[in-house]
């Protein structure tokens, strides 16, 4: 069974305030070409479901096409933290992570078509814990792993320092906790600070 955990991209897709919204338009309709429809789209690299490259928040760091693809394919543990105002070590210390390299937090804090105004806090302390337990990717159903008004991006930096990559903007409404196979491959965009992905889980 395949579960699509990507957010739909259209004219109503919520975008980080002030960032480039998603737009698709038909450049050449079949009525003009006589053979094909050809469209184009514009968007921020961080709209809807996306991967952050380290370059997004640290100059002279890895860009999206430089990231190893195996990070984004493989077993992932979905952990339900939907009752939590803050996600901390207490939420993962007793979870068996021996068979996974990826952790996905289901917060249910972004379940509609509006950009959220509040989100659960994610403790930067998770970075070192994940390193100790072999976790290389953290995913969230939030637009960011840091507070919306953060300028220091403590959790972003902690995850990077501990070798943990970031997948944001997931749609986990219909996903139960447990182990799945995740596929969430970023586009091969040279020099980019992030990339939209089509993320799926397989049970």
List keywords for this structure.
single chain, 203 residues, mainly beta, nine-stranded mixed sheet, 3 helices, EC 3.5.1.9, Arylformamidase
Task: Outline the structure in words.
- The radius of gyration is 17 Å and the shape is globular.
- The chain has one domain: 3-Layer(bba) Sandwich (Glucose Oxidase, domain 1).
- The chain is mainly beta.
- The protein contains three helices and 13 strands, in the order ββαββββββαβαββββ.
- It starts with a strand and ends with a strand.
- The strands form three sheets. A nine-stranded mixed sheet has the order 1-13-11-5-7-9-10-4-12, covered by helices on one side. Strands 2-3 form a two-stranded antiparallel sheet. A two-stranded parallel sheet has the order 6-8.
- The longest helix has 8 residues, at 154-161.
- Helix 3 links the parallel strand 9 and strand 10.
Summarize the topology.
Layout: E1 2-4, E2 23-28, H1 30-33, E3 38-42, E4 50-52, E5 73-80, E6 86-87, E7 102-106, E8 121-122, H2 126-132, E9 137-140, H3 154-161, E10 165-168, E11 178-183, E12 194-196, E13 200-202
Parallel strand pairs: 5-7, 6-8, 7-9, 9-10
Antiparallel strand pairs: 1-13, 2-3, 4-10, 4-12, 5-11, 11-13
Helix pairs in contact: 2-3
Terminal-residue CA separation: 6 Å
pLDDT averaged residue by residue: 97
Tell me the structural class.
Answer: mainly beta
CATH class: Alpha Beta
Q: How can the largest sheet be summarized?
A: 9 strands, mixed
Specify the overall morphology: globular
* Contiguous runs where pLDDT drops below 50 for at least 5 residues: none
Organism: Aquisalibacillus elongatus
Cofactor: Zn(2+)
Protein name: Arylformamidase
InterPro entries: KFase/CYL, KFase_sf, Kynurenine_formamidase_bac
């Amino acid at each position: 069974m395949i579960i699509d955990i990507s957010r739909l991209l259209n004219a109503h897709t919520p975008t980080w305030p002030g960032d480039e919204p998603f737009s698709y338009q038909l450049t050449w309709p079949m009525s003009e070409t006589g053979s094909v429809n050809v469209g184009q789209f514009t968007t921020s690299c961080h709209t809807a479901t996306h991967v952050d490259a380290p370059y997004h928040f640290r100059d002279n760091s890895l860009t999206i096409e430089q990231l190893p693809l195996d990070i984004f394919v493989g077993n992932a543990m979905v952990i339900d933290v939907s009752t939590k105002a803050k996600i901390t070590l207490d939420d993962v210390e007793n979870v068996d992570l021996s068979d996974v390299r990826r952790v996905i937090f289901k917060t249910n804090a972004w379940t509609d078509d509006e950009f959220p105004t509040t989100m659960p806090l994610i403790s930067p302390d998770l970075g070192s814990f994940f390193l100790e337990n072999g976790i290389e990717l953290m995913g969230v159903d939030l637009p960011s792993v840091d507070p919306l008004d953060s300028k220091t991006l403590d959790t972003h930096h902690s995850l990077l320092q501990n070798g943990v990559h970031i997948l944001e903007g997931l749609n986990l409404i219909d996903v139960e906790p447990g182990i799945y196979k995740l596929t969430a491959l970023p586009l091969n965009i040279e020099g980019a600070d992030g990339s939209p992905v089509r993320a799926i889980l397989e049970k």
